[in-house]
Design goal:
Order of helices and strands: HHHHEEEEEEEH
Oligomer: single chain
CATH architecture of one domain: Roll
Strand content: 15-25%
Radius of gyration: 40 Å
Shape: rod-shaped
CATH class of one domain: Mainly Beta
CATH topology of one domain: SH3 type barrels
Largest sheet: 4 strands, antiparallel
Strand order of the largest sheet: 4-5-6-7
Number of strands: 7
């Protein structure tokens, strides 16, 4: 019974000693060993060149890892990204004029000759709003760039169908009757 315990104790200590180490790399076995002398010569040749084999194997041992930093999620639709940008642009303009498209607004009057000219636009619901340079207007977050005697220039960023954002300028002009009254 005593030799079995000793044998079990040796096997257990060997197993515990081997747990913390990585297994040694596997080497390719020679294809054919014709004679024992040839196999001994092959063994000495492989013993002399382990440094060359290790240097050649190091690049192959490195693991490839993927980093998703700075890349878009391939499982999300690019259309949702575009709609998210559009919603951000819509929420930039929190004034009541941000609810309407610029084409829906009608320029009613322009007051020039002041240090800060003022224009008046009429919304589709009939409400009038005054505009000065820098005012937010339109669903795309446009900004009034200039108030002139003949109209108002609005600069905004428009998202195209391909997803690019382009700066555009829209001019709201006075109706012809109002323009005629200015010249008289």
């Amino acid at each position: 019974m005593r030799p079995r315990r000793a044998l079990a104790l040796i096997a257990l200590s060997a197993a515990l000693a081997a747990c913390g180490k990585q297994p040694p790399p596997r080497r390719a076995a020679p294809a054919h060993a014709a004679t024992p002398a040839a196999s001994a010569a092959t063994a000495t040749a492989t013993a002399k060149a382990p440094a060359a084999n290790d240097a050649a194997k190091k690049p192959a041992e490195e693991e490839w890892t993927y980093s998703s930093v700075g890349k878009r999620d391939p499982f999300r639709s690019f259309l949702s990204d575009l709609s998210g940008e559009k919603q951000k642009a819509q929420t930039r303009c929190t004034t009541p004029l941000g609810r309407f498209e610029i084409e829906q607004l009608k320029l009613v009057a322009v007051v020039t000759g002041l240090e800060d000219p003022v224009a008046m636009v009429e919304a589709p619901n009939g409400t009038g709003y005054s505009l000065r340079r820098g005012a937010c207007i339109g669903k795309n977050g446009g900004v009034v760039a200039a108030v002139r005697s003949d109209g108002v220039v609005v600069s905004e960023w428009v998202i195209r169908a391909d997803g690019t954002r382009d700066p555009t300028q829209t001019v709201l002009r006075l109706p012809k009757q109002a323009a005629l009254n200015l010249e008289e």
